[in-house]
Amino acid sequence: MPKRNRINRYRSYGWSWKKIAGIYGVSPTTARRWSVQ
């Protein structure tokens, strides 16, 4: 499954960008950019 789909699912759970970014070891900005690719 693409990262975008997984990230969007995390967002639907109400997770913060910071929490999602922490999973991948990246900055919240990077996680947000992945979600819109």
Automatic annotation (TrEMBL):
The lineage of its organism: Bacteria, Bacillati, Cyanobacteriota, Cyanophyceae, Synechococcales. This is Helix-turn-helix domain-containing protein. It comes from the Bacteria. Pfam families: HTH_23 (PF13384).
